[in-house]
Amino acid sequence: MKKALIIYGGWDGHEPEQTSALLAGHLQQRGMEVARTDKLEVLADAAKLKELDLIIPHWTMGQLTGEQETNLVAAIESGVGLGGVHGGMGDAFRGNTAYQFMVGGQFVAHPDNHKDYTVNLFAQSGDPVIAGLDDFKVHSEQYYMHVDPGNQVLATTIFHSQSAPWVNGTVMPVVWKRRHGRGRVFYQSIGHNTKEFGIPEVLEITLRGLLWAARQ
Predict the structure, then answer these.
(1) pLDDT at position 124, please?
(2) Burial 148-174 (b: 16+ CB within 10 A, else e)
(3) Number of helices and strands (H, E) in the chain?
(4) Of 153, 35, 143, residue with least CA distance to 85
(5) Residue pLDDT, tens place only, 56-105
(6) Considering only CA atoms, which of 173, 184, 213 is closest in space to residue 23?
(7) Sequence-distant (≥ 6) Cβ neighbours of residue 167 within 8 angstroms
(8) What are the structural domains of the chain?
(9) Radius of gyration of the chain (CA)
């Protein structure tokens, strides 16, 4: 049985405890053993991290120590998967650039705050993370991110902003996959709170992406 660890905490507005519990439950239903912790100290045990199949950070903002960052990155480079959503992974550990390099992107803004927008899937890619799904609409923060051009992008959104009109027309990645060392990395920028996982496409893409990262 594949083993996953969810590390949750940071800013409470992203409902880290509730969202981590929701994801854990769904992953368990799909045959994965899942542990959760709200302590970053778990990252001090480099050997135990490498015994996992998947690590899910759900910790908005915050800071990793040098040892914690080194151990986490080393685990992924050794072949452990990394996956997550929204600010829990894409706006985590703002001062840790090795972590950001591994994720493949970093949140910088959400013009207009919560708004309606469309997510466009790269259906022609045939990728199993999005196979059989169609474009869908979301009411959430539309994340403007600095992203790695090496990401394998699976979905995008187009910005139409009142508060930041200079970004209008920008095509921004929403879902991507990548490799870091021997590890698989998955990220999607939706999931401000548990309610957003009630959108079937959001939940399904998230679970498929996490399972892909864990090689399941």
Answers:
(1) 86
(2) beebbbbbbbebbbeeeeebeeeebbb
(3) 6, 11
(4) 143
(5) 999 999 999 999 999 999 999 999 999 999 999 999 999 999 999 999 99
(6) 213
(7) 111, 144, 159, 161
(8) 3-213 (3.40.50.880)
(9) 16
Q: Residue 90: what pLDDT?
A: 98
Tokens 């923060």 found at:
141
Strand pairing category for 33-37 and 136-141: unpaired
Q: Are strands 114-121 and 105-109 parallel, antiparallel or unpaired?
A: unpaired
Predicted pLDDT at 29:
97
Give me the sign of the Cα torsion angle 186, 192, 193, 197: negative
Is the C-alpha dihedral spanning 155, 107, 80, 207 positive or negative? Answer: negative
pLDDT, position 121 = 98
Q: Mind listing the pLDDT tens digit for each residue in 103-130? A: 999 999 999 999 999 999 998 889 999 9
